[in-house]
Amino acid sequence: MVCFSTLAPACVHAEGIGTEHLFGFMIGTDVGSVGEREFQSQTTGQFSKGGGKYRAINQEFELEFVPAKNFRIEVGSAFASHDINGIPGVEDRRQLAWQGVFLDLRYRFLDRVEAPFGLTLALETHADRIDETTAALARRYGTELRLALDRELIPNRVVAAFNLFYEPEWIHLLATGLAEQESTAGAAIAVMAQIRPGFLIGGEVRYLRKYDGIGLGEFAGQALFVGPTAYLQLSERTRLTAAWSVQAWGRAVGSTAALDLLNFERHQARLIFGVSF
After folding, report:
1. Could you read off the pLDDT of 152-202 as tens digits, one per residue?
2. HEC profile for the chain?
3. Residue 48: partners with Cβ closer than 8 Å, 6 or more residues away
4. What is the distance between the alpha carbons of residues 63 and 27, in angstroms, rounded to a whole number?
5. Which of 32, 140, 153, 272 has its CA 20 to 30 A from that of 80?
6. Where do the domains of the chain lie, and which CATH numbers do they carry?
7. What is the rounded CA–CA span in Å between residue 8 and residue 24?
8. CB–CB of 129/169 below 8 Å?
9. What is the largest distance, in Å, between two alpha-carbon atoms of the chain?
10. CA gap 150, 158 in Å, rounded
11. Spatial contact of 187 and 161, defined as CB atoms under 8 Å apart
12. pLDDT, tens digit, for every residue of 117-150?
């Protein structure tokens, strides 16, 4: 917060770049205007794990609305497609299934138009019927807490964002009866530049840590993801965001490999289309 505040003047009068839907794997602090409603389609692909073929595609359909100032609600459902073959410790599968439902709540504490930087807290909770990684039938519950900060470094031209997040999950595999707990924590930073009105390009860097358990006590592995992001305002009511990340560095516990392909994928990609109504 101190670093962001030193980049800015005491007050800013221009509204500037909207960051609500600007990033791929991160979030901005903007939450929309009161009464605003949107439909969003988000497609996320995860590709390549050690030892075989791995492809997982998650398709989310979401409704977003802003019932009060600085407060946004998002509800949605997701489908998942998996193509897994030859991955050690994971059963071979090729399936398409309904995954589950989720609820995302966001509240903006600081508006960067009036404060040195924007500050938003997001809480997302989900309930799934299949395991995200293995595609096995399961009861899977999780919550993600995310703190977002952003600041226009150059008004109407360059914006930077920072995220901190923590996601505990509880998983009960139906086939084996095995109950598991795991969590992911990390930090991310992004910079986007407006090339022309409504078209921005930039990049995101994310550092992720995986734990066996929800208390951040049993460290399992870590990974650094780096990749480009692009945002395009297609029309007054429609938008498109595309992002791709590659694991540039990683290390699983007990491994000497330069990447952690046990807890994370080699490549991640995301495409987001939204329309307001």
Report:
1. 999 999 999 999 999 999 999 999 899 999 999 999 999 999 999 999 999
2. CHHHHHCCCCCCCCCCCCCCCCCCCCCCCCCCCCCCEEEEEEEEEEECCCCCEEEEEEEEEEEEEEEECCEEEEEEEEEEEEEEECCCCCCCEEEEEEEEEEEEEEEEEECCCCCCCEEEEEEEEEEEEECCCCCCEEEEEEEEEEEEEEEEEECCCEEEEEEEEEEEEEEEECCCCCEEEEEEEEEEEEEEEEEECCEEEEEEEEEEEEEECCCCCCEEEEEEEEEEEEEEECCCCEEEEEEEEEEEEEEECCCCCCCCCCCCCCEEEEEEEEEEC
3. 54, 261, 265, 266, 267
4. 16
5. 32
6. 2-276 (2.40.160.40)
7. 25
8. no
9. 59
10. 11
11. no
12. 999 999 999 999 999 999 999 999 999 999 999 9
Cα separations (Å) of 132 from 57, 62, 68, 240, 261? 10, 18, 33, 25, 15
- CA distance from start to end of the chain: 35
**What pTM was computed for the model?**
0.92
Place of tokens 């395009």: 232
